[in-house]
């Protein structure tokens, strides 16, 4: 399939810069956009505990990537693409395995 998306870093005009992050796709319901979740830990020194939290990032999903729910992806920072999007999917690290279920 030919990729004609101008907002694709590999085939279009889009240039990436800044952060390069990895995460899991938690939503692919929007056309051309995926939501990527990235766990991070917060250390509470007062109680000597660490909390696990998630940050959700909206990223552009070009047709040549077509990241789907459950995929591990690499995203890179780019110019602001919409009100909430300033990242683009640049690599599929691993597709969701069949054993994990829906
Ligand atoms: Zn492309």
Report on the structure:
This protein has 102 residues and is mostly beta strands. The protein has a single domain (16-94), classed as OB fold (Dihydrolipoamide Acetyltransferase, E2P) (Beta Barrel). The protein contains no helices and five strands. It has strands spanning 16-27, 33-44, 49-60, 72-78, 85-94. Strands 1-2-3-5-4 form a five-stranded mixed barrel. A hairpin with a 6-residue loop joins strand 4 and strand 5 (85-94). It is globular and about 55 Å long. The structure holds zinc ion. Zinc ion binds next to loops.
The radius of gyration computed from the alpha-carbon positions, rounded to a whole number of angstroms, is 15 Å
Bound ligand species: zinc ion
Q: What is the tally of beta strands?
A: 5
Strand content: over 45%
Distance between the termini: 27 Å
Shape: globular
Secondary structure category: mainly beta
Give the proportion of residues in helices.
under 10%
Largest sheet: 5 strands, mixed, barrel
Tally of alpha and pi helices = 0
In CATH, the topology is named OB fold (Dihydrolipoamide Acetyltransferase, E2P)
Order of helices and strands: EEEEE
User: How are the strands of the biggest sheet laid out side by side?
Assistant: 1-2-3-5-4
What is the subunit organization of this protein?
A: single chain
The overall number of domains is: 1
Name of the CATH first level: Mainly Beta
| Low-pLDDT stretches | none
On the 0-100 scale, what is the average pLDDT?
Answer: 92
CATH architecture: Beta Barrel
